[in-house]
Amino acid sequence: MKLVYFDVYGRAEPIRMLLNHAKVEFEDFRIGFAEWPALKAGDNPVLEFEQVPVLVLDNGKVLSQTKAIMRYLGLQYGYLPTDAYEAYLVDSYLDAFNDLMHPFALARWEKDEEKKKEILANWLANTFPKFLTAFEKRLESQGHSKFLVGEKLTIADFSFSSLISVIVYNELSETSATLRETYETFPRLKEYAHNMKEIFNDYLESRPKRPM
Ligand SMILES: N[C@@H](CCC(=O)N[C@@H](CS)C(=O)NCC(=O)O)C(=O)O
User: Fold this and answer.
1) Ligand 1 pocket check for 10: Cβ under 6 Å
2) Taking every annotated instance into account, which residue ranges of this chain make up the domain GST C-terminal (predicted)?
3) CA torsion 5→10→164→62, rounded to 10°?
4) Does residue 159 have its Cβ closer than 6 Å to ligand 1?
């Protein structure tokens, strides 16, 4: 199969992590930002919504939309719970990660430096701790499990491990050290990061290093 995205972590990284963990061979096709406008304008049948990531399967089918791709791969490779409540928890996490990251992404692409600072400061003071508090509570209710949901790795773990590896534990990110200070005030989340680092260490060490 072929995964099409930009040469950054972004929305494709949980997909890369999952395929890597499941030992599925795939082409990690990375588009340069400069090539994108022409590709997008080119009426390319692979770009159904004129957005990436897309995953082109070996049978020619093209999958779009990150969460749907994750769910598809989760079902294929055993990273989706069969229990309805656990499946709900996984989806709820994925939506929460999107909500958490939306303002952060807006700040990153904001050209006006003052506005950018303001969005980021508000996110750091309010949004980030609010979501972490909720995640910490969920982890507390998980008892001794290492994972976000149930007793095994799910697509929620790929998504959250990717997220923290990019914004909290990333030496190339300008904001990572500040975010880590807040993140590590949550003991269960800190322990979670440690546990996931053990599981994904080989991949995290060998992947291309990027600030985002
Ligand atoms: N809902 C889509 C959003 C995809 C999306 O926003 N992709 C961005 C990159 S992260 C993109 O393709 N941007 C280029 C563009 O829209 O021209 C998903 O979850 O996959």
Assistant:
1) yes
2) 83-212
3) -50
4) no
